[in-house]
Structures are given as C-alpha cells and as structure tokens.
Write a structure and sequence with these properties.
Largest sheet: 5 strands, mixed
Order of helices and strands: HEEHEHHHHHEEH
Distance between the termini: 48 Å
Strand content: 5-15%
Radius of gyration: 21 Å
CATH architecture: 3-Layer(aba) Sandwich
Number of strands: 5
Number of domains: 1
C-alpha cells in the first residue's frame, strides 16, 4: 500500500512538473512552432536572426505587414530581421526582384507597406517590371533607375539566392517566419492562428535562442 501511494505521489509530481513546464512554455514544438529537420546557416554571429518569407500578392502577408512593421521597430539590438521574397513559380520572380531592387536603392523600408496597400487595397497590379516602374515613378523612384537596377546582375543573384533559401527551409506557404535557421512559425500551426499570436511565438523563440547564446558566453 505504501509503495502504491509512493508511486502515485511520484506520478503526480511528474504530471505536475510537465504541466508546470507547459505553462511556463506557452508554445510547444509541433503546435506553436516547428523545428527544421536540418538547421540552416545564418550570418551575424552573436545575433538572433529572424527571417520572414513573404509574397507581395499574398493576402495573409498583407494582413501581417502592419503588425510586423510595428513589431520590427521594437526589436532589441541583438535581433536581425531579414525578409526573403519567395517564388513558388517563375511568375513570382519579378516580385522577388522588385524587393531586391528597392533594397539596392535604399527604398525597401519606406515603400514595403505601400506596395502591399497598392496591391491589396487599391487593387493595382504589380506583376511586371513595366507596371512596377510606372507605379514607382509616382513614388519618387525614377523609371530608368528602377529598370536598370531591376535588370542588374546583383538583383538577379539575390533573387536566385532567395529561391534557394525557400527550398532549403522547405517553405510551402507564406507568411512563414524562421528563427536562427532552426525554428519556424506560420499561421498553419494550430496554436498560432492570428498575426499577433505568430509574433508572440517568434518572440518566445527569440528569447529561447538568446538565452542559449548567453549561457554559452558566460
């Protein structure tokens, strides 16, 4: 009888410990986030690298954009946010190059939100270089400057690298946010159905990675 009571007490403590751990960790692998089968390399030693995979025509990326922009402005100095436009088909490549052209011209931060608004709220089609150049000319980017940069070797290389990253990470839907080349969060996971919840899960993973980094340096 005493042994049975001791066993029940032990099992109760284990269950309580598991419940406590789950309460302390609001996001769990397989629900709040997933773990990549193969860790991907990231730069920026000593930093936590967050990678957002997106597509300008994606309505879910558009819905996330305002919250992501506000969230990005609050990031601590040890976090690096990088954005990667995806291309599931060759038809997506021009919009990949649009993003990298704006980055090359130093206009990505100021025009990112406006591009989403133009496509999803104003219903302006931005699928071809000519359509993009016409729209950008009205936003202070000279047409010839845009087209020359859009067609440059450097922009083409960055677009190809983005597609390789998409494949290496196994991205099959957007928006998806990766943390340190190890974890991924997307709206497809059952505990992250909203934009705010997605970013809460990313915050949790940033803290998890940063704590591990700090532990190895002390």
């Amino acid at each position: 009888m005493k042994r049975r009571l001791a066993l029940l007490a032990t099992l109760g403590a284990i269950v309580l410990g598991v419940a406590t751990a789950q309460a302390a960790a609001p996001f769990q692998p397989g629900t709040g986030y997933s773990v990549l089968s193969a860790r991907q390399p990231v730069g920026h030693p000593g930093k936590v690298v967050v990678t957002e995979f997106f597509w300008y025509n994606c309505p879910h990326c558009n819905a996330l954009e305002p919250e992501l922009d506000a969230w990005a402005r609050r990031l601590p100095s040890y976090v690096v946010l990088q954005r990667v436009p995806i291309a599931f088909t060759p038809q997506f490549v021009p919009q990949q190059k649009l993003y990298y052209t704006l980055r090359a011209l130093g206009k990505d931060a100021s025009l990112q939100g406006a591009i989403f608004q133009a496509i999803h709220e104003q219903h302006i089609v931005l699928d071809t270089p000519d359509q993009m150049a016409t729209w950008l000319a009205a936003h202070g980017v000279a047409r010839q400057t845009f087209l020359a940069t859009f067609n440059s070797f450097g922009v083409a290389m960055r677009a190809r690298r983005a597609t390789r990253m998409m494949k290496d990470y196994g991205i099959d839907g957007v928006p998806t946010i990766a943390v340190q080349g190890t974890y991924e969060v997307s709206g497809d996971l059952p505990q992250t159905p909203t934009d705010a919840r997605i970013l809460q899960a990313v915050d949790y993973l940033i803290a998890k990675v940063h704590d591990a980094q700090s532990a190895t340096t002390h």
